[in-house]
Amino acid sequence: MAHCLGIHINTGRFEENLNYERQLIYRKVIMMNKYMSGPSNIYPNYIVDAPPNSKDLYSLGLDKLRFDNNLLSLGFSQVELSLISKLSEVNNKFKDYSITLVWFNLTANFINKGELEAYCTKKLLKLKQIYDKTLLNYDKLAISYSTQIKLILQSRELITLSYIKETLDILEYWKFLSSGKVTQELTSQTIGNCQTLLQLSSKLRNFKVKFYYLYLIGFTLIRLYKAVGPGERREILGVLDAVRELVGSFGGAGGRGGAGREGNSELGKFNDLVFKTGLKLIQAK
Q: What domain of life does the UniProt record list for this protein's source (predicted)?
């Protein structure tokens, strides 16, 4: 649909604010496609190449694109509008650069495991560098907008969630091309990222997003379980038990929480069934 509408085409025929929106929408479509497909592309990928980096997404603030009146009408002050503009620049830059790092070549013919490891390690390092620079920008904003710390922290947490998700994608790609054989580094990073993701996702107010990340943790660690040793298995089981408790308390299928509508959707029931079945199978071993 995005291609049919021509959203991916760079053109000077539109005003800056419209081109800004077009580029943002196209990148969101790309990331949704990647999140659905995963590193193994279980869904068709109709986007051949990742788009080139666009400085317009982080050099043109929202306050310079005729959005002032719209945002002010929602009750934002001039200070909040200025901060939202700067946060959007920081977020857009991270997402724009990270897209290319989670763009995988499934037809790549790596000569040996060392070459594959070097390829994935380079992606992880580059992603970490981009993330660290993003955190530094958040720290600078926290100094300049000391009265708006809550808004800055909320934005920072969302970027951290994206960073961990993209890190897990790279690690999963590594494992996928390794035919399920994993190194100690891959195992440690995957478990560590899932533990951090568990802490962050448990605080999310949006239940759809919360369940997405909780099940992502569960499915990631269940797939990893059979490839690791006894020590790592105990760690994994601890995280999975915490996921099970959270899913139940926040209203997963059959849960006690107030978000039962999300957890009891058809997709929620399916995810819950797959997760609980997988957990029972590995606990029985």
A: Eukaryota
